[in-house]
Amino acid sequence: MASTAAILALILLLLPPIALAAGDLNGFRATLTRIHQLSPGKHSEAVRRDGHRLAFLSYAATAAAGKATTTGTNSSSVNVQAQLENGAGAYNMNISLGTPPLDFPVIVDTGSNLIWAQCAPCTRCFPRPTPAPVLQPARSSTFSRLPCNGSFCQYLPTSSRPRTCNATAACAYNYTYGSGYTAGYLATETLTVGDGTFPKVAFGCSTENGVDNSSGIVGLGRGPLSLVSQLAVGRFSYCLRSDMADGGASPILFGSLAKLTERSVVQSTPLLKNPYLQRSTHYYVNLTGIAVDSTELPVTGSTFGFTQTGLGGGTIVDSGTTLTYLAKDGYAMVKQAFQSQMANLNQTTPASGAPYDLDLCYKPSAGGGGKAVRVPRLALRFAGGAKYNVPVQNYFAGVEADSQGRVTVACLLVLPATDDLPISIIGNLMQMDMHLLYDIDGGMFSFAPADCAKL
Ligand SMILES: *[C@@H]1O[C@H](CO)[C@@H](O)[C@H](O)[C@H]1NC(C)=O
Ligand SMILES: *[C@@H]1O[C@H](CO)[C@@H](O)[C@H](O)[C@H]1NC(C)=O
Ligand SMILES: *[C@@H]1O[C@H](CO)[C@@H](O)[C@H](O)[C@H]1NC(C)=O
Ligand SMILES: *[C@@H]1O[C@H](CO)[C@@H](O)[C@H](O)[C@H]1NC(C)=O
Ligand SMILES: *[C@@H]1O[C@H](CO)[C@@H](O)[C@H](O)[C@H]1NC(C)=O
Ligand SMILES: *[C@@H]1O[C@H](CO)[C@@H](O)[C@H](O)[C@H]1NC(C)=O
Ligand SMILES: *[C@@H]1O[C@H](CO)[C@@H](O)[C@H](O)[C@H]1NC(C)=O
Ligand SMILES: *[C@@H]1O[C@H](CO)[C@@H](O)[C@H](O)[C@H]1NC(C)=O
């Protein structure tokens, strides 16, 4: 028996990873909807939600770096969903759990791993966002608690899992961060996502939530507890619609269905691991250059590169953060380039009541008759020659309008990274109207402009 298994394992190892991925699992698809529409007046909220998000990511990164005083150095990364507050400008996906199945929306988060839902008996659960049903483990024939000596429990951060563990004890967790926490225990259930159904998926059954307004999360990170790791999908893709006219569902595709068919325009760059933060489960890319109009900014390897100190730097692609955050030096270059290109416009200052928590804002000229402001083009370059010509609405938008709907203040939707989290983050606004492929097995991140409604 053992030797057969060993030979099989050897044969599998010899096969190219692509062949494995293709045979593993049929693809499945689901849809995403944006939780909070961004319209003039709503940007401050988005920046505030991002603030909570960044605090969570910072906490997670600190723990992953082994720097949190309460966290052991070999937790596989935090990935808690201790989180995402009220959705952080994120996207919901409908899933169902249990037998019979109960449907509910969860936040889709490439920045974390655990799958997590509210469970009865709930001592402290949030009634919002509606509909936010609570799972009833006692009424499901497929529900099963995971033991605390199993591998899934060991993947939880040390600080969150039980201090003492024996064969009969359940895997209780309590994730804390900042002022929030979520407590419960790990279990397995039958999970349905879109048109795919999967037995025995490990998830967190939360019975006590000290974090606001989230009924659950599905982590799509690279850690072992995430949906994509548990189902070994190998790759996934999504396309976020900026035009939400007909209800705004955006497609997300897993496994063999996840591919970019827009061949001629596909750009690709390697997905990286942070060499100084091996436990980090983020999707890192190598941002090597930025152009504002025809000006190439003086980006060097250290502008957005990994750093041996602090939280490791680098650039991640994250579905759960709304705006884009650039490492301070890189941001300063971008800001200066925009300022010099837009010098003929009046910039608003905090003193003039602007900037909605944004940094670089302009007032289109009074009496300009609503004439369009010419905004400089923005392009991001990645290792391997990939270039992203960012659609203007993905980085510059009206944040205030008059009663006739004319934009009165427009801002750059890019901000400097915070001191707590000196990592560059490509947020979901900058991902819109693009088909993004996270090819985990192939180690590549690819993207192409797309009409998301037609995918
Ligand atoms: C989830 O289901 C609800 C209720 O059936 C529906 O209104 C909503 O549009 C669905 N959301 C997604 C992302 O499919
Ligand atoms: C949670 O939702 C309620 C009601 O929608 C809202 O008033 C509150 O501000 C939300 N909490 C957070 C942290 O966003
Ligand atoms: C957990 O404990 C039980 C009972 O002692 C044992 O049978 C099982 O193999 C253990 N599981 C792991 C992953 O150690
Ligand atoms: C944590 O590290 C110790 C020793 O460094 C090792 O024995 C243990 O298996 C590790 N645990 C996990 C979950 O990786
Ligand atoms: C196992 O752990 C649980 C919770 O920590 C405890 O209540 C129980 O007494 C323990 N059982 C044994 C056999 O040690
Ligand atoms: C979880 O931790 C929070 C904050 O530390 C605490 O208030 C709460 O009582 C804990 N809940 C459980 C079930 O341990
Ligand atoms: C900038 O502001 C000044 C003073 O309010 C005004 O005279 C000028 O027309 C404005 N320029 C533009 C381009 O809007
Ligand atoms: C990023 O790309 C640049 C240019 O191709 C290269 O010099 C650098 O080593 C890359 N960094 C990493 C971490 O791969």
TrEMBL record:
Keyword Signal (UniProt): yes
Alphabetic keyword roster: Aspartyl protease, Glycoprotein, Hydrolase, Protease, Signal
Boundaries of every Peptidase A1 domain copy: 91-448
GO cellular component: extracellular region
Keyword ATP-binding: no
Active site: D109, D318
Gene Ontology MF annotations: aspartic-type endopeptidase activity
Listed InterPro entries: Aspartic_peptidase_A1 (IPR001461), Aspartic_peptidase_AS (IPR001969), Pepsin-like_plant (IPR034161), PEPTIDASE_A1 (IPR033121), Peptidase_aspartic_dom_sf (IPR021109), Plant_Aspart_Prot_A1 (IPR051708), TAXi_C (IPR032799), TAXi_N (IPR032861)
Residues of the signal peptide: 1-21
A biological-process GO annotation: proteolysis
Family: Belongs to the peptidase A1 family.
Protein's recorded name: Peptidase A1 domain-containing protein
Protein's organism: Oryza sativa subsp. indica
UniProt lineage: Eukaryota, Viridiplantae, Streptophyta, Embryophyta, Tracheophyta
